[in-house]
Design brief:
This protein is mostly helical and 990 residues long. Helix content is 58%, strand content 5%. Helix 16 runs parallel beside helix 19, helix 29 crosses helix 32 and helix 32 packs antiparallel against helix 33.
């Protein structure tokens, strides 16, 4: 009998007892191997995913540098730092609708006695990295995210560390980060309960001011405190959270946010008057800025200008006076770019009304050396900020000394990193441009001694630029080696996984065994393992000598282990090669077509990470192709071809919509009714169309009255969730606090609805409909706009996929092709009833990959996910709790994935293909994309581009774990799914 298509071949059911014995032993080995193969996959991807931290997210912090004492007197005795959290530049500088400016005091400072500009933040534009850049002068490594927000120990140097004493008041999420472990600090923060998004948060700013005012008032009765405040090198830090909280809750164009800008300005004015009247020495410097901005949607995190552009105003002792802009000033001479990829010297918007004053933009990390210079303190030893010299009022000689101190501080970091790398490298490659740095320093000192300040300053700035390049050089020193090892590891993993699928889930082993029983001989594997161990041991010794991180050992060990395992399958690979050479040309055509189609689909998915609109064209085309295929096999009046076509086209609409979802409560409520309508239609088919030959295998053959009650209860919960969406939103619109009863009802509806599918009938259509209705209430309550409609569209498309596969199964049975792919009784890898995989089955993991990705990109992209959106969780919680809010947002993202996984599992049961075999094929497809993204990772360009490219690699690399966890999670819903036997239908047709 001739075999099926693709990887199946001709197979004879008659075999000798020796063949059966060998095959049985082999399948037992494969069964054991399958268990640790899953564990290996999870471990390998977890370890390889961590490689991005060693390549691009390596901590910039090194210790052991001596601080550089400045050789000039301090311009200021104390410094006041005011940080308005979440204040974007345009809302600060532009006038309101009446033509009045929102910050009259700071505006008068800009025009009369200070300098100003825009401080450019680097994504991720979040509070912690923004404050680290301002106060410590460097961009914190993303691994710090794993340490959380709560009172982290100060592991890096900062302006606060260098000060004689720091007084800080503000948010409990920021102040403890810098002062919690700082002995020479006095600080206080309000309780977390104060951060309630249901109220106007400007009172938080007033709280910070009141704390500072209370401190000064107490000093009048406390001589010791008063004497302490009169000392030099003091820092006062007021963290003003109001704009951030009001921006999240009400948007940055709301009256609450815009009024908070006025509140912040008024606080700055009162702080200035209070300090001036208290100290009366005019030796205080003031710096006003923000950690990040706020998008129109009320979120932040990405690299959009509304998030990266923040105001910077400096005035007081040591700060230059305003400089009128020169008539010859040209905005196009300077094309150097900031960390957020904006061009230096960009024109000032005319509505800011500051065209006549010189604007001095800086990188956010430049503020730290500015504050250090104003106080005459050594710069933070980990700072990479360039001193914005135009802000400070120093003599020509002092300017050179200030720049030189900034240069030496950065150079010291370079020298320390160079020393550490040289001391641990067997083949050290130095950074050649700084090979003669001592001569350059001597030359600068010589130029200072002969009072050639201009040349000395220019040479210092050039040396500083080279030092920053050198820091980057050592930051990526091991880049090429790691990329090579990890790429080989991924390639070895994919080859090994393909071999396992061929050996476990296809008829190839039987075909090979009939020709040569030595195919599965593993007598010489000890030689391979010995060679692998020797190579692994040699590499570990080299890495130990070089003091490489422990993960480097893991990268090499896993890569060597995988290729050793591949070498152990030498006999099988040789037999596979002979098998391929013996096939007909038609087989190679099929194989090549499958390979090309698979690669094209996976490449389309890779491109979709950069442009989600690709899914629109993909589903428009898929709808046409699927419909044409179905019309060749089933009549038009069955309704299935039309349904598949419309479902694909409906889903294609959503990737044309904006990633930043606009608020539309009416659309969410309408979606509730649409979801119920879809559920009712599915229930109607399950009850009244159960004998249709196109739905026979999907429906239940036993009528169950309890299932009707369960269905009605689920429908009612969807209706109740729509009502609660309306109630909760109306409270928020009226600025009323959401009642605890409402929150309890929302939590109850979401929780109960997700339990009900466990009690639904086990038939495919009944169970999937129940799962679809079960997750709908939670998704509706977490929705703010069109994503609620997307939920229904995705469910329709998944049902179209199910119907397509059911029709394809019917066609296959008609052609009797499935009779050639049943496993033998000796096969222990396949579960009872499953068949061998065919080449055509590759469509299943490919379709899964498409749906799995559209589940994410259908309502957003990476930038929109990174941006924090409070409205999505407002119906469950109003008090600021970052971890609970993040958990709710992640759960919302997971719901579409759960629908895809449940449908995928149901399809594998319907087609009787091995689910674990399909899972391995999914992982192979995923890893093809992972390797592509690995080579797309870039270390140049804007940080947003770098961050996105690394995010793409990290997410795809984690997909093996993510999909496995979702399979485990959804198994409680899909384990007992059953399909009806086709025997009765076949008899009826005959």
């Amino acid at each position: 009998m001739r075999g099926g298509d693709g990887i199946l071949g001709a197979r004879n059911n008659i075999r000798s007892s020796s063949e059966a014995s060998i095959l049985r032993i082999r399948t037992q080995f494969l069964k054991r191997r399958e268990k640790w193969l899953v564990i290996l996959g999870v471990l390998l991807h977890a370890v390889y995913m961590l490689s991005i931290f060693d390549i691009y997210f390596k901590t910039p912090i090194v210790h052991g540098m001596e601080p550089v004492q400045p050789r000039f007197s301090a311009p200021a005795k104390r410094l006041v730092l005011l940080v308005a959290d979440g204040l974007r530049a345009d809302k600060f500088f532009e006038p309101d609708s009446d033509g009045n400016y929102r910050a009259p005091f700071l505006r008068s400072v800009i025009k009369e006695r200070g300098r100003w500009g825009v401080s450019h933040a680097r994504p991720p534009t979040e509070s912690r990295p923004g404050h680290v850049a301002i106060i410590a002068g460097f961009y914190e490594d993303p691994s710090a995210v794993t340490k959380g927000w709560k009172a982290n120990p100060v592991e890096f140097d900062s302006v606060f560390n260098r000060s004689r004493h720091t007084f800080a008041f503000g948010s409990p999420d920021i102040i403890p980060i810098f002062c919690g472990a700082l002995h020479h600090s006095t600080w206080n923060s309000y309780p977390h309960e104060y951060e309630d998004f249901a109220t106007d948060a400007s009172f938080l700013d007033e709280w910070s001011f009141d704390q500072f005012q209370s401190l000064l008032n107490r000093s009048n009765e406390d001589p010791k405190l008063k004497h302490f405040l009169q000392q030099d090198n003091l820092v006062v830090f007021l963290h003003l959270l109001g704009c951030d909280s009001n921006g999240h809750a009400h948007r940055p164009y709301s009256p609450e946010y815009l009024n908070n800008v006025k509140v912040v300005d008024h606080i700055a004015e009162r702080v200035y008057n209070l300090v001036q009247s208290y100290f009366k020495d005019n030796l205080t410097a003031y710096v006003f800025t923000a950690d990040h901005g706020m998008s129109d949607k009320g979120s932040h995190g990405d690299g959009h200008p509304t998030n990266t552009d923040t105001p910077l105003v400096a005035w007081g002792s040591g700060v230059r006076q305003p400089v009128p802009i020169s008539e010859n000033h040209n905005h196009h001479h300077n094309t150097v770019r900031f960390v957020d990829d904006h061009v230096h010297d960009s024109p000032t918007p005319s509505d800011w009304g500051l065209d006549d004053l010189e604007r001095l933009d800086v990188n956010q990390a430049d503020i730290a050396p500015l504050m250090s210079t104003l106080l005459g303190l050594p710069g933070p030893v980990n700072s990479v900020g360039n001193l914005p010299l135009e802000y400070v009022n120093l003599s020509e000689v002092e300017e050179v000394e200030a720049v030189l101190a900034n240069t030496k501080q950065i150079l010291n970091q370079f020298l320390r990193k160079s020393h550490l790398k040289q001391s641990s490298s067997l083949n050290f490659k130095p950074f050649k441009p700084l090979g003669n740095y001592t001569l350059v320093l001597d030359q600068i000192d010589h130029l200072i001694s002969i009072r050639d300040s201009a040349a000395a300053k220019r040479l210092s700035e050039n040396l500083r630029s080279l030092a920053l390049e050198g820091l980057h050089y050592f930051q990526t020193y091991d880049w090429f080696m790691l990329m090579t090892v990890i790429s080989l590891g991924y390639l070895g993993w994919m080859i090994y996984l393909i071999l396992h699928v061929l050996q476990s889930y296809t008829a190839l082993p039987e075909s090979f065994l009939r020709k040569d029983q030595s195919v599965y001989s593993r007598t010489n594997t000890w030689k391979v393992y010995l060679s692998g161990c020797l190579l692994m041991g040699s590499m570990c010794i080299i890495l130990l000598v070089e003091h490489s991180p422990p993960l480097y050992h893991a990268y090499f060990a896993m890569t060597i282990f995988l290729w050793a395992q591949i070498c152990c399958e030498y006999q099988f690979l040789k037999a596979l090669w002979r098998y391929m050479l013996g096939r007909e040309i038609s087989y190679f055509v099929k194989f090549l077509a499958c390979f090309i189609i698979s690669v094209v689909i996976l490449e389309i998915l890779v491109k979709s990470f950069m442009d989600r609109k690709i899914y629109t064209w993909s589903f428009l085309l898929a709808g046409v192709i699927a419909t044409v295929y179905l019309l060749r096999s089933i009549p038009w009046d069955s309704g299935i071809p039309v349904f598949v076509w419309l479902a694909c086209w409906f889903l294609s609409v959503f990737t044309l919509m904006p990633a930043e979802i606009p608020d539309n409560t009416k659309l969410v409520i309408f979606s509730g009714f649409m979801i119920v309508t879809i559920g009712v239609a599915a229930r109607y088919l399950d009850v009244y169309a159960r004998e249709s030959k196109y739905l026979f295998c999907l429906t239940d053959d036993i009528k169950n009255s309890k299932s009707n009650v369960l269905f009605l209860f689920q429908v009612l919960l969807v209706f109740f969730s729509s009502i609660m969406v309306s109630v909760s939103t109306s409270h928020r619109a009226e600025k009323q606090e959401l009642l605890a009863l409402h929150q309890l009802i929302n939590w109850s509806i979401a929780g109960v609805s997700m339990v009900l599918p466990l009690f639904s009938p086990a038939a495919v259509l009944s169970r999937l409909t129940s799962i679809y209705l079960g997750f709908a209430p939670a998704f509706l309550l977490l929705s703010i706009g069109y994503e609620a409609v997307f939920y229904g569209a995705l469910a329709l498309a998944l049902m179209a996929w199910m119907l397509f596969e059911n029709v394809h199964l019917s066609i296959s049975r008609t052609n009797k092709s499935s009779t050639s792919i049943k496993p033998t009784e000796d096969n222990l890898v396949l579960t009872s009833g499953d068949r061998y995989l065919q080449l055509s089955d590759m469509r299943i993991p490919l379709a899964f990959m498409v749906f799995f990705n559209i589940a994410f990109f259908g309502t957003g992209n990476f930038a929109s996910i990174a941006s924090f959106e409070i409205s999505s969780v407002y119906r469950f919680i109003t008090v600021f709790s970052p971890f609970l809010m993040a958990a709710l947002l992640i759960f919302k993202l997971l719901i579409p994935f759960l629908l895809v996984i449940c449908t995928f599992t149901a399809i594998t049961k319907l087609l009787r293909v091995p689910q674990l075999g399909c899972y391995f094929l999914v992982i192979i497809c995923s890893d093809v994309m992972t390797v592509h993204f690995f080579f797309l990772v870039q270390n140049t360009g804007s940080w947003m581009e770098i961050g996105n490219s690394i995010s793409h690699f990290g997410i795809m690399s984690a997909q093996v774990v993510f999909v496995l966890l979702l399979f485990a999670l959804t198994s409680i819903y899909t384990n007992d799914i059953q399909t009806r036997s086709s025997k009765r239908l076949s008899h009826k047709d005959m």
